[in-house]
Amino acid sequence: MSQELTHWLDDLLEEIEGIKVRRKSGRRVRADVPADTLPALLELLQGRAGYIHLSAISCVDWIEEDEFELVYHVWSYESHSLVSAHIRIAREPGVYLSVYDLYQPAGFFERDIHEMYGIHFEGSPNMEKFILTEWDGPPPMRKEFDSEAYVNEHLSWQEYNPPWLQELIAEGGGVIIPPEEQRFSRKKD
Amino acid sequence: MSSIKQIPVITERKGNPLARVFDEFVRFCRSRSLFILHYCTGCGAIELPPAMTSRFDMERLGIQPMVSPRQADILLITGYVSIKTLKRVILTYEQMGSPKYVIGICSCTVNGGMYWQSYATAKKLDEYMPVDLYIAGCMPRPEAVLAGLQKLMDRIHSGEANSWEDYFRNYDYYLGNQQKLFGENWQTPTDIITEAKHYDLIDEGTFGKHTQLLEQHQKPLEALDMRLGHDLKEPTE
C-alpha cells in the first residue's frame, strides 16, 4: 500500500519543473523547488495528493549566502507522510507570496515569520505584531541582530557575588559544591 | 526553642508597653496566615503543586494559594520574567494591599538564568520591585520552597520583612527602571504617590526626575463606572 503511494507521489512531483526530490525515509520527503513554483507544488499536493494539513512554515537565515530559506511542511492524513518543501528567497528585499488562499493557518505562521525575520508576505491577511507586541527593535531572529549587545545596552546584570548570596553561603546554603565534585565525569576517586 | 530566641528584646521602653505587645501579636498573626498569589511565569511553577498538596503540605504553615492580587499577601514569581510579563507583574504587585511580600523563585529571577543573553527577558527582578527573598535553584525543590517560606515567616515575625515600604520610599528608582524598559509614557493604573501619602511613607527617594516625567504625561485616573449588565452597542452596518 505505502509502496504504491510513494511511487504515485514521485510521479506526481515530477510534474513540477526544477524540482529536486529527496526521500529521507518512508514517510518523509524533502523537495527543493524554485521560489516561483512553490504555490503550484502546494496546490498539487493539496488538491491531488491529500496533503491538506500545513503543519508549519519555518525560516532559516543564511546570512553568508544572503538568502532566507522557507520550509513548508505539509502532512497527509491518508498516507501518513510529510513533505517538506524548501525554497530560497533573496534576503533583500525579503518579500514572498502568501499561501493563505491555499492553507488558512499560514496566516499565523507568516505573521510570526514577519515579526521574527521581517519577511513580508504579499496577500497575507494580517502582518501586524503577533507575540512581541511591545517590541520596537529590529526583527530579533535575524542573524545580524546581536542579542547580547542589546542586553548590555538595555538591561543590567546581577553582580557576581551579591551580599545576600554571601549571607546564604554563610548559613550553609548556596552553591558550595564545586563542579569537580558535582559532575560524575570529573569526579576523582 | 529557636523561635523563642528570635523575639527581639527591646531594652528601651517608652510610652505604653502594651502597644509593643500588640504589635508583636499582630506580626505573629500576620506571619501565620499568608495567602500567596503565584504568578507562574516559568518552569518553577511545577514545584508548587507538590509544595501545596499533601506530600509537603504548605497549609500546615498557614500558607494557602489565593485567587486575586487584592486578597494576597505574597507574590511568588516562579521563573523568568519576560519584558512583556514584567508589565503585568508590576500591575499585579501594585494592586496588592500592603503589607505585601515578593519572593523570586528560580535562578531566572535572580540573574536571568539560562536566558542571560535574551533580548526579551528582564535580568534582575529587584530593579523593578522590591524582593523580600530569593529562592535560587533551577528549579528549587519543594523543600527549598518551604524553607524559603519559613524564612519569610520568621522575618515577618521579627519585623524585618518590610521591603514593601521600600517601594514607596524609593519609588523614583523603581519607576526610573520601569521607564527605561517600557518607555517614557509608562503609567500604571495605581497611584503610588497618593498611596505613599496614605501609608505615611513619603521619603527622599519617593520623588525625583522620573516621577516628574510621570506627572507630565499622566492621564488622570478615573473610577470605573459600576453598573450591572452589558453595555454592548448594536453593530452599525
In N-to-C order, the SSE pattern of chain A is HEEHEEEEHEHHH
Helical segment count of chain B: 10
Unreliably modeled segments of chain A = none
**Largest interface, counted by CB within 8 Å of the partner chain's CB:** A-B, 20 and 20 residues
Structurally, how many domains make up the residues of chain B?
A: 2
**What is the count of structural domains of chain A?**
1
What is the level-2 CATH architecture name of the largest domain in chain B?
A: 3-Layer(aba) Sandwich
CATH class of chain A: Alpha Beta
Structure description:
The complex is a heterodimer of chains A (189) and B (237). Helix content of chain A is 29%, strand content 25%. The longest helix of chain A is centred in the first third of the chain and has 12 residues, at 2-13. Chain A is α/β, with parallel strands linked by helices and 189 residues long. The model of chain A has no long low-confidence stretch (mean pLDDT 85). With 237 residues, chain B is of the alpha/beta class. Chain B contains ten helices and seven strands. Chain B is globular, with a radius of gyration of 20 Å. Chain B starts with a helix and ends in a 20-residue tail after the last helix. The chains are: A alpha/beta (189), B alpha/beta (237). Chain A binds chain B through residues 132-135, 137, 140, 145, 147-148, 150-151, 154-158, 164-165, 168, 174, and chain B through 83-84, 87, 110-112, 116-120, 122-124, 127, 134, 136, 180-182.
